Amino acid sequence: MARMHTRRRGSSGSDKPAADEPPEWSDVDPDEVEQRVVELAEQGHDPSQIGIKLRDEGVTGTPVPDVKLVAGKKITQILDENDAKADIPEDLRNLMERAIRLREHVQENPQDYQNKRALQNTESKVRRLADYYRGDELEPDFAYSYEIAVDLLEEN
Prior knowledge:
Number of strands: 0
Number of helices: 7
Strand content: under 5%
Radius of gyration: 19 Å
């Protein structure tokens, strides 16, 4: 959803190399990786932060370049199996936090038209993503509003 509200093409980035198995220098036990993922989630880390920590710190000193290659499951699947998953998906929560910050800024600075537009675009992304998650990750009658977003994020 990076270029949803712009005409620009954006810059090209590198693709992840295709691999079927972890590199030979990373000899980590899949059970240890799963335990470390659950441990980091209980400490309050998001799935993306868990992946970065495993890449940088690793398990017992050995870095984990890709959790899916080692454990055979994605980080979110591991968290789901161990009931350590967050109430709101990470991407939706991040967009809601941004929308809340933008709304507070626009209320303080009503002449800031550029950020008014950014707020409209961000709330549009939140609604679109809520449609995607509604029924599976979110309640079937979930509807985004500023007040609901503030309440949800204060709970977590």
